[in-house]
User: Fold this.
Amino acid sequence: MAITRYEQVDVNTLTFATNAYGEGETTITKWFSSRPMVGEVKASVAISERYRVYQDLISMKFNYTPNMQTISNNQNLYSITYRGNEWRIADCLEANDRMSVMLMCYRSDPITEV
Assistant:
């Protein structure tokens, strides 16, 4: 069982656009700060012939609020900043009694040459 603890996080809104050259751009804007219960679910590294790819998956348990309902309805439009890194929302699980929302978030580090 993973150790869980309350941590400070920032919830961000994501805006997707295309620049003059046709490249996709993502703008990240802080929406609000919160202190969910954070637990590490999985940390993995994949090593190929020339590269290493680090991937992490964590769970964040928030209290159910109107903001969290908005995030659970459109999770692709939001991200979480935790420990200085951006985490994207992979899955959103609402409790049956609507007292809490569990976000499963992932982060893919850049590919590192071996």
Remarks:
- The beta strands are 4-6, 9-18, 24-34, 37-47, 51-63, 78-82, 85-94, 100-108, 112-113.
